[in-house]
Design goal:
Layout lengths: L6 H7 L1 H23 L2 H7 L9 E5 L7 H5 L6 E4 L15 E3 L3 H6 L1 H6 L4 E5 H7 L7 E3 L1 E2 L18 E2 L4 H11 L4 E5 L7 E3 L5 E3 L20 H18 L2 E4 L14 H4 L4 H13 L1
Parallel strand pairs: 1-2, 1-8, 2-3, 3-4, 4-5, 6-7, 8-11
Antiparallel strand pairs: 9-10
C-alpha cells in the first residue's frame, strides 16, 4: 500500500518550519507586489480612478431572483457583473459594462467562457495570474489582499490600484472597484445572499433543501462553498465605509436575504412606474 505524502504540509506542521514557511510566503508576496506596482497592469488600473465621478452604477449578482426583464431596463446604465453571468446572455441584449471574477477555482473552470464575455473592460486578481497560469489578454488585473478575518470586519480599499480586500464575495470586490471609479450611487440587483449549501466559520456545512443557488442551473458543488458569516461582515464593512464617505449603496434585489443595505425598488431608481412594467410583463406572457 502506497501512502502519498504532501511534503509541504508536513513541513508546515513543524512549528519552527511553519514560521519560516510563512516568512518566505511574506517575502515572496512583497517581491511580487513591488513588481506589480511597477507593471503595466497596475498602471492601467490607475486610469480608472474617478472616471465615473459622482455617477451611479448597478452591481449585478447571479442569484435566482435575477431576470432578463430587469436587465433589459439597464441596457443604458453602467453595470458590473461577474463569473457565470454569461449564462443569461441568450435571453437579453444587455451586456455588462464591467465584468469581473475573484474565485480562483471557478475562474480556472470558466476561463474560456470568460474570455468570450462581451464587456467594455474585465477585471481579475493578479494573484490568479501568478499562481494558476490564468491569462486573459484584454483584462485589467488588481491585487487581491486575501488576509483572513472571522469575527472582525475586513478592510475596505480606498485605492484599488494598490489592493482590493477579500470579503468572501465577488460583490465586495465590485463595490471597492466602483468606489475607486468614483461612483456615488451603487445599486445591487440579483444579490440574493442565499444558497443551497454554505459553510460556517467552524467548517460545518449547512444545507437548505429546495433553495436554488443561481438564476441558471449552476451550483457550488465541487467549488468553494460560500461562507455567509464572512460575506455578511464584508457587506457590513462596505456599508460603514459608504456611510462615512457619502456613497449611497442600496439593495434593489427582488427578494433574497441580504438586509445589510436599505431596500429600494428598481423601478424607483429608474423613475419608472411599477404598473407600466407589470403591464408590459403581462402582455409578454400573453403573446
Amino acid at each position: 500500500m502506497k501512502v502519498k505524502v504532501n511534503i509541504r504540509e508536513v513541513f508546515k506542521s513543524i512549528p519552527i518550519f511553519k514560521k519560516f514557511y510563512h516568512f518566505l510566503v511574506l517575502i515572496s508576496r512583497k517581491i511580487r507586489l513591488e513588481f506589480y506596482y511597477r507593471s503595466n497592469d497596475c498602471t492601467r488600473l490607475k486610469t480608472f480612478q474617478n472616471i465615473h465621478h459622482e455617477e451611479r452604477c448597478f452591481i449585478i449578482g447571479n442569484g435566482p431572483s435575477l431576470n432578463v426583464e430587469d436587465l433589459d431596463l439597464l441596457k443604458n446604465e453602467v453595470t458590473f457583473a461577474a463569473h457565470r453571468i454569461y449564462n443569461i446572455f441568450s435571453g437579453t441584449e444587455w451586456r455588462p459594462t464591467y465584468y469581473l471574477g475573484q474565485d480562483f477555482v471557478l475562474l480556472k473552470e470558466i476561463e474560456e467562457q470568460a474570455k468570450k464575455v462581451e464587456a467594455k473592460n474585465k477585471f481579475f486578481p493578479i494573484n490568479i495570474k501568478w499562481l494558476h497560469d490564468f491569462n486573459i489578454d484584454d483584462a485589467v488585473y488588481f491585487y487581491l489582499n486575501s488576509e483572513e478575518f472571522s469575527t472582525q470586519l475586513p478592510r475596505f480599499s480606498k485605492n484599488a490600484s494598490k489592493e482590493v480586500y477579500e470579503g468572501y464575495s465577488v460583490t465586495y470586490a465590485a463595490i471597492q472597484l466602483a468606489v475607486y471609479m468614483g461612483f456615488k450611487e451603487i445599486y445591487l440587483l440579483g444579490v440574493d445572499f442565499n444558497y443551497a449549501q454554505t459553510i460556517d466559520n467552524e467548517g460545518n456545512i449547512i444545507i437548505q433543501e429546495g433553495v436554488k443557488d443561481y438564476f441558471s442551473n449552476d451550483h457550488n458543488i465541487g467549488l468553494k462553498l460560500p461562507n455567509l458569516e464572512k460575506s455578511f461582515l464584508g457587506f457590513l464593512s462596505a456599508k460603514n465605509f459608504a456611510e462615512d464617505e457619502g456613497v449611497l449603496i442600496r439593495n434593489a434585489t427582488r427578494g433574497g436575504k441580504l438586509e445589510v443595505f436599505k431596500r429600494i425598488q428598481l423601478e424607483e431608481v429608474l423613475n419608472i412606474e411599477y404598473r407600466e412594467i407589470w403591464n408590459k410583463k403581462q402582455r409578454s406572457y400573453q403573446i
